Amino acid sequence: MGARKQIPRDLGPVFRVGDALAAGVGSGRLRGRDLERPFHGVRTLAHTRGDDADSWDARRAELVRLARAYAPLLRENQFFSHETAIAIWGAPLASHGRRELDVSVMGNGSLPRGQGVRGHRVHPEATSTRIAQGLRVASFATMWASMGASMSRDELVALGDYGCRVWRTGENRPHPGRSPLATPAQLEAAATAGRRRGAATLRAALPLIRLDAWSPRETATRLVLIDTGLPEPRLNVDVFDAYGDFLACPDLAYPEHKIAIEYQGQLHGGRYAADIERVERLRAAGWIVIQVTSETLRFPNIVARRVRDALRERGWTPEGDAFGLQ
Fold first, then answer.
1. According to the model, what pLDDT value does residue 2 have?
2. C-alpha distances in angstroms, 136 versus 146, 158, 178, 311?
3. Model pTM?
4. Biggest alpha carbon distance in the chain?
5. 115 and 160 Cβ atoms separated by less than 8 Å
6. pLDDT digits over 191-237, tens only?
7. Which domain holds residue 41?
8. Domain check: are 108 and 180 in the same one?
9. Residue that finishes a domain, picked among 208, 234, 264
10. Does 2 fall in a domain?
11. Nearest alpha-carbon partner for 210 in 233, 190, 176, 229
């Protein structure tokens, strides 16, 4: 058997069948097992799926890969939207998402059709687009406002927290000065531009969005606390000891009570050791540190009870809470 003919490099990893034929690639070569056919008329170099411990990251990467494969088929009035746009922006996905691509069309153009594609029609006056990762996509604010009927209040808050994060300077803070993807005012403007499905959920989420949340699990923990009537903790506050030396930057904290709440994900190696050391430094300085995991978050009343007990130990007097934890 002869050697397989190489695909011309200038076609790139994603290409139209018509472009390949015009470049002299035979139809038989386009049926090779080293090429994938994600959509009619498109070929991509075969993709090897790696093991990814974070299912959100794995789903996000797969959606972006499929979007790149579909991008040559986009017409001028079409763009990626909804959950596909979330993935392209690198934001937290819904827990119940699907693998299909979301493609929207401006105005009265024909809806995109085909296996693996969900078409949407949007009004130009309520929609703005951007280029992200080289792909034409709904602006972050437009995308956020489009998810009111598909996401819960808490998911919308986590999504808004991601987009509105202000990248401040400080100890070990990544990307200081980076511009946020949106502002709360822009989210509100997008949510009220025309009739939005899920408008009530969007309205409920808007006032809960904060500018210094670093992860969706951190957001989920904060919402558990305020929903049970506990005071809202501060987010990612730099903590220093009596000598002015940096101790830690807890996910959530009540600095006046020296209480920190840390969400611990799946940690390995150096990251695990660093997080253990951070907790121990806080405790040595007289802080109460409450650690939360994905397992703990399955039982919000337990999270709230532990924080409530710590607050009371430090002199806070509860006026009552939504779960009746007095």
1. 47
2. 16, 23, 21, 48
3. 0.84
4. 81
5. no
6. 999 889 999 999 999 999 999 999 999 999 999 999 999 999 999 99
7. 9-45
8. yes
9. 208
10. no
11. 233
